Amino acid sequence: MKRFDTVRLAMAVFIASEAVFFAFLIAAYLFFSAATVHGPTARNSLDPPRTLVFTLCLLASSGTMWLAERRLSAARFGGFVLWLAATIVLGFVFILGQATEYAGLIMKSVTPERNLFGATFFTLTGFHGFHVFCGLVSMCVLLGLGFTRTFGEKEASGLAAISMYWHFVDAVWIVIFSLVYLTVWL
Amino acid sequence: MSDIPITPRLLEEPAPCAREGAWLEWISTVDHKRIGILYLATTLFFFAVGGVEALLMRIQLAWPGNTFLSPDAYDQVFTMHGTTMVFLVVVPMLLGLANYLTPLMIGARDMALPRLNAFSFWVFLFGGFLLYFSFVSGHAPAAGWFSYAPLSEKGYSTRYGLDYWALALLGIGVGTIATAINLIVTIINLRAEGMTIRRLPLFVWMVLVNSFLIIFALPALNASLVMLLIDRQLSAHFFTVMGGGSPILWQHYFWSFGHPEVYIMVLPAFGIISEVIPVFSRKPIFGYGFVAASTVAIALLSLGVWAHHMFAVGLGPAWNYAFGASSLLIAVPTGVKIFNWIATMWGGSIRFTTSLLFAVAFLFTFTIGGLSGVTFAAFPLDWQTTDSYYVVAHMHYVLFGGTLFAVMAGVYYWFPKMSGRMLSERWGVVHFWLMFIGFHLTFLIQHILGLDGMPRRVYTYPDRPGWAVMNLISTIGAFVIGISVLVFLANIVMSLRSGAPAGDNPWNAWTLEWATSSPPPEHNFDRIPPVHSARPLWDLMHREGRA
Known about the structure:
- The complex is a heterodimer.
- By secondary structure, chain A is an all-alpha fold.
- Chain A has one domain (6-185): Cytochrome c oxidase, subunit III, four-helix bundle (Four Helix Bundle (Hemerythrin (Met), subunit A)).
- Chain A contains six helices and no strands.
- The longest helix of chain A has 33 residues, at 116-148.
- Chain B has a single domain, classed as Cytochrome c oxidase-like, subunit I domain (Cytochrome C Oxidase, Chain A), CATH 1.20.210.10.
- Chain B is 66% helix and 0% strand.
- Chain B has 18 helices and no strands.
- In chain B, helix 2 packs parallel to helix 4.
- Chain A binds chain B through residues 1-4, 6, 9-10, 13-14, 16-18, 20-21, 23-25, 28, 31-32, 35-37, 111-113, 115-116, 118-120, 122-123, 127, and chain B through 112-113, 116, 177, 180-182, 184-185, 188-193, 215-216, 218-220, 222-224, 226-227, 230-231, 234-238, 243-246, 249, 253.
């Protein structure tokens, strides 16, 4: 007797576990950012307006993911593939933004080695970026399946699970962006 | 079973799964029973390795001023012993049993995600190899199983042992979380018809609660390990004071995983006991609801007691009172369980099989370990006993005398199901008494050594009055345990070859795993008996009377 969709239930449990993981990294960031006195800090190194642009890309990608799901449930493959591709592009733009941000920071010798702001900042945003990357890889697999139009019930529940994951990664970024970047303006 | 009428509920034919070559079959398997056995065999191997490490330590400590191991080698050996026993033996041993039994007990074909299940096992195995590869790299980790910073940092542990330690534990942690997810989904989704949450076998109940504990506690370890690795590899300063970091943060993070971990190592053991005692007392469990609910209480409380490992840090009276109180509280649901088990045996027609002997030994030993555990919650006492052999005695009473005795009870109970053959009861009794006596010989006296001030984790000790003889007794006890393990291994090998055939249900037990053949076919059940209570096979055997 099947009570819930297996893959989606597993993803929900996985997300619960991941949320705890991020909670610990976020707690470490807050703990240490209060303690950082010398050297680079969020206030003197980060560029919130620039990151806001990339944040909007990531937020938009949650919307396009939702549209892709809608198209799939209406069995409109063309629209599904299009919106899924849009999601991947937006996610990729976000990663690109993060990569250039990292490059800029490292040029200014803001590194994990430098001080605790560097260490916690790169750890927290780095692990978020890694999660975005994993999401992109799995969406590329789904896109490949979408092109071949072999999208059965199994693939659909896989898509639903990846979509849950993607929204979660997005939500985590909203928390990180608020705590790390927006607090600069306080 | 053949004389018991079964209302057939035919399952559709399973997919054919013919493969060439037995080895390949084991390596490529996604069958939960095989993966369960792989887990158990692997943990048995690591148990032997960890046991040898323990014996090396006991030889070194047999008399004062011994030079069998150098101080540095001793540090590596106790670190590897602790890490091995916690991460490569106790937890995966229980996961292996959970893997094997959960689908059978709930009337399912397999786990919900069989390939993820195989992934979990292989990640765990290679995590274990990675940990032991540290020896090959020149230096095993030597900062203890909880690797306190700053000792675990680059400045103090200069060689690669700790990096292997952290990477291995990360891998094992990922595998453990994956298994927990798998078990949760399996138990929620794949229960047979009629198997409501209040009819779940108690073992499955404990596995379910345990899995939730894993998914919420393990990420704390993963986060700490990641930060430690970044410290070591990228020269960050999370846990070093010089760069502004906080070694105390490591302790908070590690123990907010580490204390739930203690319960992760014992909850499934409670489940085993809750299956074994009723069957051999011929009575249903006393207070099913209380056993289940107290498990949930333990799991929730266990997330809020971590700082009792840190009383000696000097966090301040507010922390100490709060965590002392919560740690005292956790003794209540645990005590409830002990009374449930005793009340189950009370007035029963008890059959003292080896399995039940181990279960009773569990009750006895675990209660002692629980009581010495309560003494740590009183932090002034903890200040006196912390980092002494009193702690070593306590944790071996709950982990060895508790969990391992329960696992032994489980092995004697379920071995017939897994292999189709009985373990020899005669050798089983020998194994039991050797292990029971050896255990208490080794660890009872360590309470006194600890109270007398002998510190743990030091490679030798001064010749104070009584210390030499007490340590020698402890060492002799350890070798008695070693002999008992050899008897156990011999019993397994002999019984696999020529043990008495077990039949489907040798113990007249009541849960679904006994409703299929021994060993079960790959698809587990040809037909699943109807489930109308927590004891479906009892209902089957006594249908006529009620109909």
